[in-house]
Design brief:
It holds the Pfam family MlaE. Keywords: Membrane, Transmembrane, Transmembrane helix. The chain has ten helices and no strands.
Length: 286
């Protein structure tokens, strides 16, 4: 009897693990299909739901999930950019001081702030401030059967709910990204020039030598793509939410973790893809 009972338990556990594995793949397929359908529906959305796109832009820009109004995401990005850029300036100056090359602080500021710091900071702020709101909105619609009602009324729910928000986030992210990038430049310069007493002329020379228009375009491209990724991740978690209000809250937390992980992964991919495995510094011959 003991042997039979033990065999039965092993079979049950094995079946449960296999079912969990299969269900995980099914869920992954649902999310991938959701993302592909949302991206493919961009032309359809701009033609049929352009009024809703404009409404989402207005809501994201000036509404409760504001990107541009005071105290909204702009304040978060500004604070995060200042703190991160100050630490970048401190560690950059200390590291270069060890090898007697502090005059290159401006070059490292131009490269690090433009290529990595500004796009990542604005994407994380977007995920925390706006993305979680998207998850809560769509998740509430899912558990109250509003999404099913849209499908019954022949309204394509994914373009109407996800694609419109993705377009709005991609449009609204550029102004806040520019503000974050500018504040990063200012904060790093203050730390190196004002606090550590480095020559302002030397700092500015190497800063402008390393900063190119191509870097700015690539950096802005990263920010826009990150906005699309964050929006799609949060909308997908809200779209497939279940379990009532508690399930919506759990979906928002999982979406935030997933979007931050996706930002890190795609940041590495885009850095290598745009600047190469061995990046070159303009004007330095290296």
């Amino acid at each position: 009897m003991v042997a039979l009972d033990l065999t039965y338990r092993v079979r049950v556990r094995s079946r449960r693990r296999i079912n969990d594995f299969v269900n995980g793949f099914v869920r992954l397929g649902e999310y991938v299909t959701f993302v592909l359908r949302a991206v493919a529906a961009v032309p359809y959305t701009l033609v049929h739901y352009r009024k809703h796109v404009l409404a989402q832009i207005a809501e994201v820009t000036f509404g409760n999930k504001s990107l541009l109004s005071g105290g909204g995401t702009m304040g978060i990005v500004l604070a995060m950019s200042l703190a991160a850029a100050m630490m970048l300036g401190v560690e950059t100056y200390r590291g270069l001081q060890l090898v007697g090359m502090t005059n290159l602080s401006g070059m490292l500021s131009a490269i690090a702030n433009t290529r990595e710091l500004a796009p990542v900071v604005v994407a994380i702020a977007l995920a925390a401030k706006v993305g979680t709101g998207f998850t809560a909105q769509i998740g509430a619609m899912r558990i109250s059967d509003e999404i099913a009602a849209l499908d019954v009324m022949a309204i394509r729910s994914i373009p109407f709910l996800a694609t419109t928000r993705m377009i709005a986030a991609m449009v609204c992210i550029l102004p806040i990204y520019m503000i974050g990038l500018l504040s990063s430049y200012i904060a790093t310069r203050l730390v190196v020039v004002w606090y550590n007493g480095e020559s302002s002329g030397t700092y500015d020379y190497f800063f402008h030598l390393a900063l190119t228009p191509a870097d700015l375009v690539y950096s802005a491209t990263k920010a826009v793509v990150f906005a699309a990724i964050v929006t799609l991740v949060h909308c997908s978690y809200g779209y497939f939410a279940s379990g009532g209000p508690e399930g919506v809250g759990q979906a928002a937390g999982r979406a935030l973790r997933t979007s931050i992980l996706a930002i890190g992964i795609f940041d590495v991919i885009f850095t290598f893809g745009l600047w190469g495995l061995v990046p070159q510094v303009p004007g330095m011959g290296i």
